From TrEMBL:
It comes from Parablautia muri. Keywords: DNA-binding. This is XRE family transcriptional regulator. Residues 17-72 form the HTH cro/C1-type domain. The keyword DNA-binding applies.
Amino acid sequence: MGKTSKEDLASIVGQRLKELRKAKTDLGQKDVADEIGITKQALSSYESGRHLPDQTILIDLAKYYGCTADYLYGLTEKMNPSSTDYSKRDSVNRLLHSLDMVAEDEGDFLADSIANTINSLSLNNGNPQRRNLIECMGQLFYSFAEYIEMSTSYGKYLSEKVSTNGLTADDIAVKLAHISGFDDIYSIIDDIRRAGISSVLTFSVNAKKALRIRAGQRTGSKKSLKMTEFEEQFKEMLDKED
């Protein structure tokens, strides 16, 4: 096994610092630097791999991000050596109890879906919109549960009306109108899509310039090629990212 050079170590530390800041805090370099007590320029040099932080600063950064120094050095993939005992968490126990209330194959499918979602949102993946995506997924689950409960209760209500010969066309129209007008899920999905696009647009200045040219906008020119509606929206989002 070859010896790790100081330059390689600085690159590893820099990459992990950058991933942690973007994925865990959603803060700018100045915000983190102020908390640690260093300059923005110093933090920028650490994240870019130009300089390796001394041990004292590296420990302060590890404490701030809730990880170990070994994780920052790339010696382990575990942020914290002491794994959380989730068996004692009420939320996990509620989840396990809920899985017992469905068929085994359904429980396996739901558990796998949740596990895959959590793994994709891991801090190690470094998605800059990770926190936004987590909030969107939580809102989506709650809204989906509300939609299921609503449709179930409406179905039972109409069935009871039928059993008493009291069902009217107005009853059906009102309930269907409520179900059809439930657009919370669509709104959340749109937020997820926007967060995904924002993640993709975390590019360098040169990459953004290339994308603008591909979309038909010529740099330095007041005239642009005719764009589709999507390209117009894409151009607007690029501008907001600057």
